[in-house]
What we know:
Blueprint: E1 3-14, E2 17-28, E3 32-36, H1 43-50, E4 58-63, E5 66-67, H2 73-77, E6 81-83, H3 95-104, H4 117-129, H5 145-157, E7 163-167, H6 175-191, E8 196-201, E9 213-218, E10 221-227, H7 228-231, H8 234-241, E11 245-250, E12 253-258
Parallel strand pairs: 3-8, 3-9, 6-7, 7-8
Antiparallel strand pairs: 1-2, 1-4, 4-5, 9-10, 11-12
Helix pairs in contact: 3-4, 3-5, 4-5, 5-6
Amino acid sequence: MTEVLRAExxxxxRDGKAILRGVSLTVxxxxxxxxxxxxxxxxxxxxxxxxxxxxxxxxxxxxxxRRLGRVDLRELRARVGHVDPRHRPASPLRVRDxxxxxxxxxxxxxxxxxxxxxxxxxAERLMRTLGxxxxxxxxxxxxxxxxxxxxxxxxxxxxxxxxxxLDEPATGLDLPGREQLIGALDELRRDHPHLATVLVTHHLExxxxxxxxxxxxxDGRPLARGPVAEVLTGERVGRCFGLPLVLERRxxxxxxxxxxxxxxx
Length: 265
Ligand SMILES: Nc1ncnc2c1ncn2[C@@H]1O[C@H](COP(=O)(O)OP(=O)(O)OP(=O)(O)O)[C@@H](O)[C@H]1O
């Protein structure tokens, strides 16, 4: 399958502090990666590199075949779907208008810009996939966090990106909201078999069943990377979080808990 992302021996230093150290990663079309690690492990920093938002201090990053440092980052960014929970429209836009701003890669609709009929049709289709059809006229400030998250995923998918980056998309969601998001992500993956995704989270319970690969980060260093069957084990994830963990996978979903000392031990 075609390579969508390649990072080789990437280091990031900010204010004299090493935030990422020697991280390498290759993501191919159709793969769905989880980036896991404790608070401060460097997940969001790595995602910003993969989304062409920042340059590495050392090492190389290729996004959609273009090497960072050799191409216009803004042009490249427009071709990557990035779901950033910090996204904040300045005015009370309707859901459908937020979704359409994915085409102009702007926070607010551009003056005098009008979508073509097929673009409106695509926005409608994506809103349906993400369970937003009833909310298409609702205004951003009235949406719940989960509804905002799903709106931002639809927005990110408008320009038909080959790569979708998701930074902790389930943060702050209640159980129905989280399950709806996970269901929508899996449906999306089925509908777009060539789409590659990278999802950052601390919580294995939030991983969609379609997750194929994982990268574990600890203190900016890669601990393990590869197919989920190899990487998502109690021993490896336990080392990543510095805890003795028991990890189970049932019906495609993961659960994790701290291992209790054996009775009498
Ligand atoms: N511009 C910066 N200057 C200095 N330190 C920074 C900068 N940006 C991030 N850091 C530090 O780098 C480390 C990694 O940050 P990052 O946000 O990538 O981690 P994370 O794994 O996404 O964490 P979290 O799970 O808490 O969101 C943190 O200790 C953070 O404080």
